[in-house]
Amino acid sequence: MPRSLRYTTTAGALLVTLALASPATANPALDAADAFLQWAKDHGATIAEYGSVTETGTGDAIVRDAKFGWDLAFSIAGANVDLDIRINSPETRLIGVTKTDKGYHLDRYEQPGAHEFAFSGGVTEDGVRNAFDISVIQYDLVAEDYLQVPFAAQEDAERPVSRFLPAIVAGLDTTIGKMFVRRMESTSKMPDGASGMQSYEGMTITGFANGRIEEQRIEKTVSETTIKTEPGVTADTVAMREETGLQVVTGTDMKPLLRLFGALPADRLTGDEIIASASVEGMNFSFAEGSAAIGSLSMTGLRIDPEAPAFDVASIGDQAALGKLPQDEASLTALGGQAADALAAASLDSFDLSALAISSPILNGAIGSIQAKDASYRGFGDFSMTDLSIKAEENNAAVDAKLFRMSELRLAPLSRYIDFFVASSNREPTLPEILSVVPTLGLLEMEDIKVASDELPAPVSIDSYRLAMSDFISPIPTRIEAMTKNASFPVSLIEEDEARALVEALDLKVVSYSDETRISWNPDTQTLSIDPLSFTIEGGGSMDLKMEIGGVPRVVFESPEQAQMVIATAMVNKASLTVRDARLVSAFIEQQAKPAGLSPETLALGLADQAANEMGPLKDTPFGQSLHGALKSFLVSPDELVITIEPETPVPAMQIMGVLATAPDTLPQLLNATVMANSGR
């Protein structure tokens, strides 16, 4: 039976009162239509009308020509906002409606055809109003097994924001077996001049219950956006178009977020995931000067730490709306720290992007993949980028990299950075304060890095580089391993003239080098070892340093400002320095000999004699004489120079300082120091 429920501004209030004052009908579908109308009026609707409501069966009804509107005005951050909301629904079918203690349950809910939602208004600041307009059109909605819990928020002038929390929490009881929208279109014009159009094809929601959605799907998305540029830019606007293929999101759950924001008790949680997984297949972007594409994108495990302290956003919103936020620096800093810690509660198990490509007249590039694991505001467990290739039109520049990887990057809590910046704004930070915000990095790897340009006579490249750090103590690593293999760069990049001339004397156009460093501290023996610190310049020579220092206490790492205390306990266990094939030494001597009118050999012997004369008390000791002879042999033919320190027992640093002050000529014997040159000749 048809029931006219059209309301006007003059008669609407009376008719609403009569309709809702009447006893419930025998058809809960009609009651549900009446209830929604009353809800709209109770929540400030200035327009609330149905063209007609027709009973089509027991528990079934069709609502035609429904119109709702709200005219709102409020202030945000000193700006006045006026907002008009309009909803026009030509036809809504309520099928299999029953009333429960939580709300109305519908076996099926249909909105065939086009249904429009419009949001228009403006933002006024300093007497200037900038208008905005957003329109959304929904086509052919069908929902099954639908329980709609009424949204009811009690008026409370002292709680303008938090008064909505009970309604939001109650809304967790809403359930939807499945919902499908054939198409959704939206157009927008924003106060900053930006405008856009979006369309979504095949939108599906499956399994919505207890605040969690099992799966959401969108088959295709098209977006066109126009942004107004700043004055002085060549074009007045910049336009971009995006086309996206299948998008699937599983396990969406808002309860962890509500718990974090203080709106939900922890015992309501059913897990810590906000999103279990998400994937996007095929994203294509086009703009006036080029295009970009992403083959696929996916993520898993977006989580909120259930142990993170709750951050009462609603109460802060109340204070902001009422103008009661604290203004003193200490309170604002504490509030900022709480907000930062709330952000740090979020983490992501994994992120994977593949086949990124960019094309434009000035830049073209591609990335094979970008992956991250265990990511959060505190860093990540692993991040990698593979098969990077970028080419720029200017100077024909190109950058290529097979692999860039970082692991175990850990940052200090965000609140600690806020404390640091506040403290350092008034004074110089202390060393402990600086160390409190220093990040730690477990691993850095690069492979097949190459940079080329018309401005470079030869590419800059690295076959591989690896830096590993571990066993951190506040936040200093006590184990470091670094290795560079086959790094090269043009000699012309050496800025210092004499150094460049020295390398050029070797007839080198490119400097190629490799290095290796291993440093470790043993907490049980308190021994600091360097084994090795070495580098090799191809065609120029190599150096290898090894050293072991005992008596290095933990306090050196825990309180670096007290590092000078190590002098009292440190001991020299052993050390060695080996230099081989030092053609750079020969080139230096030849470079200096020529303008002096000397032969290289004569200059080499003279330099050795000069070094001997500067040894002071060591000159006439057995070690001094060995060193003099070794230098003469090495400087004439720099094949190999080996200096070793191997005392029978570790020698305290304090003893070494005392010997240097009183009997320096005995130091080589104390350290059992030896030197050899060209031993293989």
Automatic annotation (TrEMBL):
Signal peptide positions on this chain: 1-26
Keywords in alphabetical order: Signal
Keyword set includes Signal: yes
Top-level taxon in the UniProt lineage: Bacteria
Protein name in UniProt: AsmA-like C-terminal region
Origin organism lineage: Bacteria, Pseudomonadati, Pseudomonadota, Alphaproteobacteria, Hyphomicrobiales
